[in-house]
Design a protein that fits this description.
Its EC number is 2.7.11.1, 2.7.11.13. Helix 3 runs antiparallel to helix 4. The chain has five domains: 192 residues, Up-down Bundle (Dbl Homology Domain, Chain A), CATH 1.20.900; 105 residues, PH-domain like (Roll), CATH 2.30.29.30; 48 residues, 2-Layer Sandwich (Wheat Germ Agglutinin (Isolectin 2), domain 1); 97 residues, 2-Layer Sandwich (SHC Adaptor Protein), CATH 3.30.505.10; 56 residues, Roll (SH3 type barrels). Strands 11, 12, 13, 14 and 15 form a five-stranded mixed beta sheet that branches. It has a five-stranded antiparallel beta sheet with strand order 19-18-17-16-20, with no helix packed on it. It has a four-stranded antiparallel beta sheet with strand order 2-7-6-5, covered by helices on one side. The longest helix has 33 residues. The protein is built from 14 helices and 20 strands.
């Protein structure tokens, strides 16, 4: 890189130099520890201790090379600093798993060095050779976590010293937003996992399912002091979740409750027979009324917070937002980087990042549970719109053959169009060639009040259209029809508040919906599994959409979500 000239250059210089130092640290771990210890560790031990180290070394070698390219003189620049971060951001996702595994790796090192003299001696030799014993291996393994937590600070400082008019400013802003969100989630989850580990360590004789830890039971929502009374007997605290004893910060495990088996019932008044310090109570009642518990808090505010935490936990188990979906969702820890099946954004964090469907495997954010496509449904194509017409003509010549379209009537005058559309529902339309207009095209449409014709001789008001030919070509005619199928004719024809809804020719057939489809635009036709759709047009099939009608509703729907039904005259 060129010599620094301003504060921005110094920020870039610091970024590149610290990146170089980080790569050297990764290479040292690989060269001076990972390789020598390979012969004294089992493959399983090696995988736990050095998980992702080689992958990180390769990733940051490429990232560092791109940073150098971004610092060339403007004439030789192949990318900007922000491009480097945006290009490698998906590779950085591995830090989530690395940070999650770090405590386990450090515990493995400590345990092996304590129990196995050979391993301990080899680790000491490696530490002495690598850095004269200044840093222990367990400390060096913390370097990647420290580095990833620093990137958003470096980016923030770089943005601070980059003018808003600079070509890289908005790219840096985007990179910072993405990286900061991801890093904050990783940092938060690491802190949460440490708290959960501390809680587990403070409980003696904890009775968990084999090979499970407390973190596997979900996210920590609240901890604190409660008094719990089982309705099976009159002894308070007999069946509490955690009961304290009199020595230090240790707790004795009593039992746990599966919240999915209970419902919460509030008690509006204080308990007259409860201890003075625990007057505020509520109930947890088994959904099959097998048992119940009364829970007591010290203050009304503490009671409120406990109830909120329990209700949140219950909603995490059975989200109310997902009650109408056909998926089988459950909270899940994704071991590999996963993007939401609905919004295509990363499921951030280290554990219980979102929900997974046990049937189709779709992974989603909690906020996306209500809008994700039906279980087993294909991925949605790009949403339909004006682009369906204007972008298709140069691809397929069939788009220029108007006779293939169910709305094209050929040569026809106004009176003929009126007769054809007279008994049709509102919104039915046709495109015709008018001999009175020297072969020009005209649209005739049946509205609620009147059947009207409009010639395609106008300047379209949409910025996407600017047509003024006296005799529109077939190309422009098809494009205009596509436009007004999703936009009101009032844009160009004052007072005509209607779109082109139903082609005048007989429907192309019927189809049954195989999956639910939630529309995200007015031009779309929502589907519920089992709906029978009248197929009006297949002109957008190359884009993934058909046009159809269900009762009075007309719109586009993904054609892969339906199965065509045989015609009435077809043989069984």
């Amino acid at each position: 890189p060129a010599a620094p000239l301003e504060k921005r250059d110094y920020c870039i210089k610091e970024l590149i130099e610290t990146e170089k130092n980080y790569i050297e640290a990764l290479n040292m771990i690989t060269r001076d520890f990972m390789r020598p210890l390979k012969d004294v560790l089992t493959p399983e031990e090696n995988e736990v201790i050095f998980k992702h180290i080689k992958e990180l070394a390769d990733t940051h070698a490429g990232f560092h090379a791109d940073l150098h390219k971004a610092c060339l003189v403007p004439q030789q620049q192949q990318m900007r600093i922000s491009d480097c971060f945006l290009r490698w951001k998906d590779k950085f996702i591995v830090y989530g798993d690395y940070c999650s595994n770090l405590p386990k790796a450090q515990e493995q090192i400590d345990e092996l060095c304590t129990k196995k003299q050979l391993v301990n001696q080899c680790v000491l030799n490696c530490q002495q050779k690598a850095n004269d014993g200044k840093f222990k291996l367990r400390d060096l393994l913390s370097v990647p976590m420290q580095r990833v937590l620093k990137y958003h600070l470096l980016l923030k400082e770089l943005m601070k010293n980059t003018a808003e008019t600079h070509e890289d400013y908005h790219g840096l802003e985007k990179a910072l937003k993405i990286l900061a969100h991801y890093i904050n989630e990783v940092k938060r989850d690491n802190e949460t996992l440490q708290i959960i580990a501390d809680i587990q360590a403070s409980i003696t004789d904890v009775d968990l399912v084999s090979n499970m830890e407390l973190k596997d039971y979900g996210r920590l929502l609240k901890d604190g002091e409660l008094k719990i009374k089982s309705h099976d007997d009159n002894n308070k605290i007999k069946n509490s979740l955690i009961s304290s004893v009199n020595f230090g910060e240790q707790y004795i495990y009593k039992s746990s409750l599966a919240l999915c088996d209970y419902r919460l019932e509030n008690a509006p008044v204080c308990s007259s027979d409860s201890p003075v310090s625990f007057q505020y109570y509520w109930f947890l009642v088994h959904i099959e009324k097998k048992t119940a518990y009364t829970m007591y808090a010290k203050t009304e505010e503490m009671k409120k917070k406990w109830i909120e935490a329990i209700e949140k936990a219950m909603d995490n188990i059975n989200p109310s937002i997902a009650k109408d979906t056909d998926h089988q969702f459950a909270m899940h820890t994704f071991k590999v980087p996963t993007y939401c099946s609905d919004c295509n954004k990363l499921l951030p964090g280290i554990f219980y990042q979102g929900y997974i469907c046990s049937v189709c495997g779709a992974g989603v954010h909690k906020t996306c549970l209500a809008t994700v496509r039906s279980c087993g449904a294909p991925s949605l194509p790009p949403r339909p719109g004006s682009h369906m017409g204007s972008q298709s003509f140069n691809v397929s010549a069939s788009y220029l053959n108007l006779a293939e379209y169910p709305w094209f009537a050929g040569t026809m005058e106004r009176d003929g169009a009126t007769a054809v559309l007279e008994k049709s529902p509102s919104g039915t339309f046709l495109l015709r060639i008018s001999t009175k207009q020297n072969g020009g095209y005209a649209i005739s449409i049946k509205s609620v009040f009147v059947m009207t014709s409009r010639h395609l001789v106008h300047r379209a008001t949409s910025p996407a259209r600017n047509m003024k030919a006296c005799s529109c070509s077939r190309h422009l005619s098809q494009e205009l029809v596509s436009w007004y199928e999703t936009h009101s004719l009032s844009e160009s024809f004052k007072g005509l508040e209607i779109s082109l809804l139903i082609p005048f020719k007989n429907p192309l057939g019927r189809a049954v919906a195989l999956h639910n489809f939630q529309p995200t635009a007015d031009s779309m036709l929502g589907l519920i599994k089992g709906d029978v759709v009248t197929v009006l047009s297949k002109a957008g099939q190359e884009k993934g959409w058909w046009k159809g009608q269900i009762q009075e509703r007309v719109g586009y729907f993904p054609w892969q979500y339906v199965q065509e039904l045989p015609s009435a005259g077809a043989e069984c």
